[in-house]
Amino acid sequence: MIRFENLEVTFNNNTIIKNLNFDVAKGDKLLIYGKSGIGKTTIFRLLLGFEKIQKGSIYFLGKPLNEKTVWELRKKIAYVSQDLDIGGGNVFNLIRNIFSYKTNIDVPFDKERLKELLFFFRLKKDILDDDYEKLSGGEKQRIALIIAVLLNRDIFLLDEATSALDNELKKKVIEYFIGNKNWTVLAIAHDRHWLNQPGLKIIKIGD
To answer: Residue limits of the ABC transporter domain (predicted)?
Structure first.
């Protein structure tokens, strides 16, 4: 599905990623692991077309990633970063507004599914009436994960997406994403809850 071939990333004349090669097949669960500042998030940004590839190639369904193919790929990806900024105001309206974006406009907004996910992620229904900016870090992270699931994508990019959750919920959420055979998951994380997951392929970046 996705191939990274001889990928190289240089920052301030310092090569932080060199000759990175790996394939991602449908249903794969991969953990990109390495110390902070080594360029892990950059891999996601290159895949999404947010940054230009300096050296090497990324392929999607056998085609080189470019301005045209990156849009096809984005329609299949749900990206959850460590800090989600979707603006201020009513949580429900902010979630609903995401389905008006160009890449999401064909995805139906499922209010019943939203209620189910709030329960699963241990959030009260009343949170939908709250001001998003006043939520805690853990609440914002759970809202981000809920949005990702609601978008009904095939591929999930999870960048430290469980870092603000308590250990019990973190384990539950990780098992939820890893356990879905139809989902392709690429995660960036540092903690043992990810490292201890059976069947998870680990891509080590750096020394």
So the answer is: 2-207
Per-residue pLDDT of 49-76, as tens digits, reads: 999 999 999 999 999 999 889 999 999 9
Helical spans, DSSP H, in 26-110: 40-47, 69-74, 91-98
Determine the 3-state secondary structure of 99 from DSSP. coil
User: Which residue matches tokens 């998951």?
Assistant: 185
Phi first, then psi: give them for residue 192, nearest 5 degrees. Answer: -65, -25
Secondary-structure percent of the chain, ordered helix, strand, coil, rounded to 5: 35, 25, 40
Alpha-carbon distance of 128 to 91, in angstroms, equals 5
pTM assigned to the model: 0.93
Are 189 and 162 spatial neighbours (Cβ–Cβ below 8 Å)? yes
Q: Return the ∠ at Cα 42 (arms to 205 and 54), rounded to 5°.
A: 95
- Cα separation, 178 vs 27, in Å, equals 9
Domains in the chain: ranges and CATH: 2-204 (3.40.50.300)
How would you list the strands of the sheet with 29-33, edge to edge? 77-80, 155-159, 184-188, 29-33, 201-204
